[in-house]
Backbone:
């Protein structure tokens, strides 16, 4: 019984931190992402549209009009809470299971969905990238891998 007030307080604190944060999904169009995040504030040299949402900066890459890579970056390089990371991954995969890669380290965690349709990487605990298999293969071919 004594854990319930603590859990409620913890959930309330997390909701306050991310209450003003919306998420978007891989595969959505640029127009849909603008509805979710507002007008992009910038475009990177690699073509990512940059959005600001609450305590996050979001970079979204589009191929043929659909998002194939979305990167959530925490303000001030604050680490993502494991619950928030899990929430974003579940949202992106519609609840499909993620498998942790054996290549993961203490500063880098990589996941793939069971059918390898989506991949995710958490860099230095403050930058979470979700990307399609096609985006991954495209980047690897550009790097000559």
Residues:
């Amino acid at each position: 019984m004594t854990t319930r007030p603590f859990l409620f307080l913890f959930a309330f604190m997390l909701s306050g931190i991310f209450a003003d944060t919306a998420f978007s999904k891989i595969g959505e169009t640029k127009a849909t992402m603008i509805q979710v995040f507002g007008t992009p504030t910038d475009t990177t040299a690699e073509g990512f549209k940059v959005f600001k949402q609450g305590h996050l900066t979001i970079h979204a890459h589009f191929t043929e009009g659909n998002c194939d890579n979305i990167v959530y970056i925490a303000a001030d390089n604050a680490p993502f809470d494991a619950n928030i990371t899990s929430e974003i991954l579940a949202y992106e995969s519609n609840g499909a299971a993620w498998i942790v890669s054996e290549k993961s380290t203490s500063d880098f965690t990589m996941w793939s969905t069971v059918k390898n349709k989506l991949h995710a990487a958490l860099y230095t605990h403050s930058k979470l990238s979700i990307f399609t298999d096609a985006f991954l293969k495209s980047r690897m071919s550009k790097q000559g891998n």
Notes: Confidence is low (pLDDT under 50) at residues 1-19. Residues 3-142 form one domain.
